[in-house]
Amino acid sequence: MNFGRGPSVVLNVGGTRYSFSREVLKDFPLRRVSRLHGCLSEQDVLEVCDDYDRERNEYFFDRHSEAFGFIMLYVRHGHLRFVPHMCELSFYNEMIYWGLEGSHLDYCCQRRLDDRMSETCTYYAAEEPNGGPEGKGRRPPGADGRKWLERMRRTFEEPTSSVAAQVLATVSILFVIVSMVVLCASTLPEWRAPENRSVEEQSRYTAESVREPSGIIEAICIGWFTAECIVRFIVSKNKCEFVRRPLNIIDLLAITPYYISVLMTVFTGENSQLQRAGVTLRVLRMMRIFWVIKLARHFIGLQTLGLTLKRCYREMVMLLVFVCVAMAIFSALSQLLENGLDLGTKNKDYASIPAACWWVIISMTTVGYGDMCPITVPGRILGGICVVSGIVLLALPITFIYHSFVQCYHELKFRSARYSRSLSTEFLN
Questions:
Q1: CB within 10 Å: which end of the chain, N or C, has fewer?
Q2: Residues contacting 357, CB < 8 A, separation 6+
Q3: CA–CA separation, 29 vs 87, rounded Å?
Q4: How confident is the model at residue 215 (pLDDT cuts 50, 70, 90)?
Q5: Is domain 158-298 given the CATH code 3.40.462.10 in the classification?
Q6: What was the pLDDT predicted at 192?
Q7: Is the predicted pLDDT of residue 385 greater than 90, yes or no?
Q8: Do the strands 8-13 and 58-61 form a parallel or antiparallel pair, or are they unpaired?
Q9: What are the domain boundaries of the chain?
Q10: Residue 195 — pLDDT band, cuts 50, 70, 90?
């Protein structure tokens, strides 16, 4: 270091001081601190830190002091972990400022960071192009086009990001509601085709159904959903990631059956296999129920449910294992007590263990249809134990799932409020 005096330097990070010798700064593990060694003037120093005291040879950084303390533990001991009760993304931002990367974190913290970034869709860059003072006022080539694509992407992905996004979300919700009403109405007896039609009549009816009012409404809704999906695919940043997203897969599952049914109608015509194709068409048309899940893009409640299931898959698997183990035990015992002993009170409902599994799952979930029940005293005692154990086993993982649901709801609500604030600013401007 050719700037400053004294054998040592002092780093003041958020009010906490650290003293180092000049030789240590040359090979310091933190890139921003090591840059001080090559500073030749006070202007060079102020590009690295926020302020400088020449008299005390003290360099001031207006950063999080506790986060820097954990980073210094990494410098001394080689282990970097998150600060307790601090947002992972905020700590990662501090790491980038000092010149560290996500790979410097311990493995457990790397997984936490990856999960956090995938949930919030937040991406950080170590060095922003043209982000320095000398880069202000200059735009790289294609910046206007990227900005337009980003606005389009937010319009289609974030319903609260702008007025146009809210209008688009409202129109999409109306199309979903209309399509669901048409789907429900098409199952009414007055709307369904008579079952005693001949093959030729069914063929003619299937071919002309698209020209009916319900078919026209369905075609309009499908056209809107298809156009929306295509535009969202075009403006997406990562096409592969777009295809892998669950909501986009659901959109594809909701749109594809319509086109398959149209193609089947065109190619079957008056073929003798039309009756078999008619069953397939009814199944494909009923898959339109997936359109209801499209509402998850516009309602925090459905998004919270999906995010909770994603985070609590371990607890859900554990709950499923509990139920399966209990079902195997109680079904075997109930079949033995009600049918296997054959003491004059043979219950035919429990003729096999698979048949008894139905009674066990209905009893453990406290539904109790009453279609089958034990008639022996030992069987009734076992039924009471089965019900009580079902309540206990189902209640054990619920606490973890509930806390995760509350956390997911607050995170999504905070993100929605943030976009609403930006929407208010855009409206005022």
A1: C
A2: 327, 331
A3: 24
A4: confident
A5: no
A6: 55
A7: yes
A8: parallel
A9: 8-126, 158-298, 303-420
A10: very low
Q: Which two tokens stand for residue 180?
A: 């669901």
How far apart are alpha carbons 246 and 119 in whole angstroms? 13
Which residue matches tokens 């997936």? 290
What was the pLDDT predicted at 386? 92
pTM of the model: 0.49
CA distance 409 to 104: 31
Is the domain spanning 303-420 CATH 1.10.287.70? The answer is yes
CB within 8 Å of 56: residues ≥ 6 apart: 10
Q: Which two tokens mark 26?
A: 């040359």
Q: Are 264 and 274 in contact (CB under 8 A)?
A: no
User: Which is nearest to 280 in space by CA: 299, 260, 298, 300?
Assistant: 260
Query: d(Cα 381, Cα 402) in Å, to the nearest integer?
Result: 32
Determine the average pLDDT of the residues in 119-136: 43
Q: Return the HEC string of the chain.
A: CCCCCCCEEEEEECCEEEEEEHHHHHCCCCHHHHHHHHCCCHHHHHHHCCEEECCCCEEEECCCHHHHHHHHHHHHHCCCCCCCCCCHHHHHHHHHHHCCCHHHCCHHHHHHHHHHHHHHCCCCCCCCCCCCHHHCCCCCCCHHHHHHHHHHHHHHHCCCCCHHHHHHHHHHHHHHHHHHHHHHHCCCCCCCCCCCCCHHHHHHHHHHHHHCHHHHHHHHHHHHHHHHHHHHHHHCCCHHHHHHCHHHHHHHHHHHHHHHHHHHHHHHCCCCCHHHHHHHHHHHHHHHHHHHHHHHHCCHHHHHHHHHHHHCHHHHHHHHHHHHHHHHHHHHHHHHHHHHCCCCCCCHHHCCHHHHHHHHHHHHCCCCCCCCCCCCHHHHHHHHHHHHHHHHHHHCCHHHHHHHHHHHHHHHHHHHHHHHHHHHHHHHC
Report domain 8-126's class: alpha beta
Using CA atoms, how far apart are residues 199 and 269, in angstroms rounded to an integer?
10
